[in-house]
Amino acid sequence: MMLIIAFVLIAVLTAVDQLIKYVVVKNFSIGEIKNLISFGDTRVLELTHIRNTGAAWSIMQGKTWFLVVLPIIVLIAGVAYMTVRRKSLKKIEAISISMIIAGGIGNLIDRIRIKEVVDYISFKLIDFPVFNFADICVVVGEILLVAYIFFSESDKDKKEKTDKATDDTKAKTDE
Hints:
The protein has a three-stranded antiparallel sheet with strand order 1-2-3. The chain starts with a helix and ends with a helix. Strand 1 and strand 2 form a beta hairpin. Helix 3 (91-114) packs antiparallel against helix 4. 24% of the residues are buried. The chain is built from four helices and three strands. The chain is elongated, with a radius of gyration of 22 Å. 65% of the residues lie in helices and 14% in strands. The chain is of the alpha+beta class. The chain has helices at 2-27, 64-84, 91-114, 133-174; strands at 33-39, 42-52, 117-123. The protein has one domain (2-158).
């Protein structure tokens, strides 16, 4: 059941990403900026329409083949992992991997369809590249997955220590 929910989540997040990008492309010319949030003269959040042929901070410009192949490998690995683990897949694990896959698919669609990614969210308080919903999905999914791995490993260690302590106590009482 969790696997079905994961695939539905992937489809919904990918559709949301593509819908937002469609709205941006139809309503903003490339380079157009619309201020959303500001405090006095300080701009905080803007919508803008840019195209990126590389990855974050425009690294890997012109390496479209790599930026198509790598996400495909990650997508296949993610789907394979979820399929193999379907019976023991935890909810947070499924959600985080689904978010990573959906974000990867969203940007992959752009790279295959128009050879570049549509970006539109500009956070102005820090020097940060313009990004999109797919990027948010990938980053939030990665953070959730790392947190899950960190805390689940911690829980395993606690359980092992508890089991060892219980075994030691039992051994002492048997003596």
